[in-house]
Write the structure tokens for this entry.
Amino acid sequence: MVILIGGSGYMGSAFAAELHKRQIPHQIVSRCTTDYTNFESLCRLLEKAKPSFLINAAGAVGKPNVDACELARSEAVLGNVVLPQLISNACDISGVPWAQVSSGCIYSGAKILSDGKVRIEKDLTLPHVRQIVDDSPSSVLGYSEDDSPNFSFRESPCSFYSGTKALGEEVISKAKQTYIWRLRIPFDEYDNDRNYLTKLQRYDRVYDNVNSISHRQDFVHACLDLWVSGANFGTYNVTNPGFVTSRQVVEMIQRNFKVRRAFKFWKDDEEFYRLAASAPRSNCVLDTTKLLATGVKMRPVEEAMEESLLRWSSAV
Amino acid sequence: MVILIGGSGYMGSAFAAELHKRQIPHQIVSRCTTDYTNFESLCRLLEKAKPSFLINAAGAVGKPNVDACELARSEAVLGNVVLPQLISNACDISGVPWAQVSSGCIYSGAKILSDGKVRIEKDLTLPHVRQIVDDSPSSVLGYSEDDSPNFSFRESPCSFYSGTKALGEEVISKAKQTYIWRLRIPFDEYDNDRNYLTKLQRYDRVYDNVNSISHRQDFVHACLDLWVSGANFGTYNVTNPGFVTSRQVVEMIQRNFKVRRAFKFWKDDEEFYRLAASAPRSNCVLDTTKLLATGVKMRPVEEAMEESLLRWSSAV
């Protein structure tokens, strides 16, 4: 039996659906029934339910976007640092293996291969970097799980949200029987405020950057496969292999939806941060070699994106 | 047997000395011997040592002052939020009662009684407030343990340090068998970078404000008395009753040490924050009624201060 914390959220509900589909018995724990932020209550629950696995899909994300976490700092620390640690302690005591849904937003930029050397570029909007991204995408390498976060409290600047997510990983990084599953910018065919495709269509202006991203169902599918197949515990970047630029996705939206209107883009970073955002944004490319090496399947990002647009539904 | 975490620090060493003086068997736990930030190690230690009580005097304070925590945010969250929660979980599992050394810096200002009404004044440097402080000190009431912190992430502005201290109290506030002992601006007769009297003598300019403060030995004495006397668990403001203004303390220094030089003061808040400080500072008056009602003794602040100056020693 699997215990699912945060099962009513955007990612949690996708886990619930996939567990249901696979006929894996599971119990969705919500704050209404169990105060899982209370150590004693959580320990009692684990003792009683004796789950074979636990998934924590709860956390503070900031609504409508990460800027909200700059103000709601208590909630960010409590949801993204204190909660993972509490769950880790409870699972440790009870001997329950578990997984934390984390985020790739603790990195900025990518590794660029040129003249046989690899260099880190934290800002992928710089013209000379962007030219490499556009002209020679195979030279753009992602951060692997061995790379330390470079968009965190330990390596400023970062958003408060990213700072807490990096710290959340840090506090559970040495725990036994623990998966850390890193999501990045979820998307799929269902219209939703959290869906990247919804966001892109609603923005007055689009911030053109470069990112690895995660198809929502592909993500939960791959995560559960990791557990079911008995892959080694540890950290995994769970994004669709490859990366996209916002401009590429906008073009795909225009082509698929036969949208005639022109999308407007922010001229540059300076304009974007001056007018649209208060916290610095993470934009990054992640390496999925470790994930794919386990045998778990994950479609290339273009394929997942094309299919989402093809099946697009704003009805659900 | 008492376990003392952070026993080599400024407050921890005072606890160690007092435990020694009282011949209470104790074990000082340092990171060198036990990684107390690791849940398993800490649980193992508690299981083996079976202490009757645990004191956590460790935490991130920011050196040379709280401004450092604005940058060292990971350390502040880890030391002031994550560590108390981890200790709380471990003590809960092991059934060990314990105490967290917290801080009164999660408040700003005082309660002012005038015309039979009590109002909150968060800024005690405002001229009309300061006049009441100077002319009618009995109208200045402190925050009690029932008052919610008003200098925290939940009530900005606050320093990052204060934000984490308030959150640290929050995460352990519902735990059983737990004391929260609030210290404020420690001082005593021994010259030390952390001693308020040392600081005041070293500043180029003094920031004149109003505060409840804690004599270091009086603090540990009162804290241990709370435990030894079996006082109810919960939160206690452990400051010397009353309050002082920086100007009053400077005058006491001048009188006692026959210092002839004039101390310079910052003209106002604006000048202080523009030139000397990056993070907002907590300045506040605390109510000690709850502490004194337990029968625990604490000298009035003036008496503790006079004696510290009388016995002043820069030799230790």
